[in-house]
UniProtKB/TrEMBL annotation:
SUPFAM superfamilies per UniProt: S-adenosyl-L-methionine-dependent methyltransferases (SSF53335)
Pfam families, per the entry: Methyltransf_11
InterPro entries: Methyltransf_11, SAM-dependent_MTases_sf
Keyword entries, A-Z: Methyltransferase, Transferase, Ubiquinone
Name of the protein in its database record: S-adenosylmethionine-dependent methyltransferase
Alphabetized GO MF terms: S-adenosylmethionine-dependent methyltransferase activity
Tree of life domain: Bacteria
Gene expressing this chain: ubiG_1
Domain Methyltransferase type, first and last residues per copy: 50-146
Biological process according to GO: methylation
Taxonomy of the source species: Bacteria, Pseudomonadati, Pseudomonadota, Gammaproteobacteria, Enterobacterales
CDD domains attached to this UniProt entry: AdoMet_MTases (cd02440)
S-adenosyl-L-methionine in keyword set: no
């Protein structure tokens, strides 16, 4: 049975290789800039924000510093602990709530619909991404917004071709190591555009 990825076993590696690299810092900066643009188009009041699969909570805690109420959901106890520390460091514990739960169950933990839902680098780690998007849509307020970011399968193909790994690409790029940060289910943008969910 295919299961969603829990990062408890590689939380340190995740922090080092995703957040701690120059590429990771650039990704965070670009994402934060895009979110500033998105926030300008949402109601100018404290928003209810859901960070679905929020990991260490870096973006979520930053949003809380702007006065928004944030709920961060993650399956990993290690990630929840790191997110709580992030909120404490920024002094936003009163506006920041963590829920250790599968994202698919988050609806039972929300007091109201979210004005903004973040789903960043999550789809590529879940077994049923289309179903997850439908669940998140049910948690979204009618005038709300979904910020979606995922690992593009085409990028993985190009990277391996540039490295000369033609046989690996031809074999469908099977995951070699369980503890690897190579996504379990890299997403093809053409697929998610066809899925039956409001876009």
């Amino acid at each position: 049975m295919i299961q969603d990825r829990n990062f408890d076993d590689i939380a340190d590696k995740f922090a080092r290789n995703i957040y701690g690299t120059t590429k990771g810092k650039i990704r965070q900066a670009v994402l934060w800039q895009d979110l500033q643009t998105l926030l300008a188009h949402l109601p100018q009041r404290p928003l209810c924000i859901l960070d679905a699969g929020g990991g260490e909570g870096r973006i979520a805690a930053q949003l809380a510093t702007l006065g928004h109420d944030v709920v961060l959901c993650d399956l990993s106890a290690q990630m929840i602990h790191r997110a709580q520390q992030q909120a404490k460091t920024l002094g936003v514990e009163q506006r920041f709530r963590c829920v250790q739960s599968a994202i698919q169950d988050i609806g039972t933990h929300l007091e109201r619909h979210a004005d903004l839902i973040l789903c960043h680098a999550v789809l590529e780690w879940v077994a049923q991404p289309e179903a997850l998007l439908q669940i998140l849509n049910q948690c979204l307020a009618g005038d709300g917004a979904l910020s979606l970011m995922f690992y593009n399968k085409h990028g993985l193909v190009i990277r391996n071709m540039l490295l000369g790994n033609m046989a690996f690409v031809a074999a469908g790029m099977p995951k070699r190591k369980k503890r690897s940060l190579m996504p379990d289910h890299p997403c093809d943008p053409a697929d998610w555009k066809k899925w039956d969910w409001p876009q």
